[in-house]
Design goal:
The protein is an alpha+beta fold. 28% of the residues lie in helices and 27% in strands.
């Protein structure tokens, strides 16, 4: 997939949204979330510099993650190696926010 240069990030990496179904995610304890984050960081350290975790949003039964990565295969490898589910991966084409409306 080709992305306009303005939509590419550091080192030419693409931004991805990763959707993970995780029943009960919203009820995970701080310690459980910390363990998940630590596992993710361990795997990412081994994959550097091909992927970078930006943030994850936790809902009642899912986690949506934002990653910068070379490609979708890299995102899926991280999930596989960390033991995380992946339901869907989407390449982000553009980012808009309230400032997009201003001239």
């Amino acid at each position: 997939m080709r992305v306009a240069p303005s939509d590419r990030h550091h080192r030419g990496m693409n931004r991805y949204l990763i959707y993970r179904t995780l029943p009960g995610a919203g009820h995970l304890s701080r310690d459980e979330l910390q363990a998940i984050a630590q596992k993710s960081n361990e795997v990412l350290a081994l994959m550097a510099p091909r992927a970078q975790w930006v943030q994850s949003l936790v809902t009642d039964d899912s986690v949506v993650c934002v990653y910068l990565a070379d490609d979708e295969a890299t995102v899926r490898k991280h999930a596989h190696d960390a033991g995380f589910p992946v339901n869907d991966v989407h390449l982000v084409r553009s980012v808009i926010d309230p400032m997009t409306a201003t001239v």
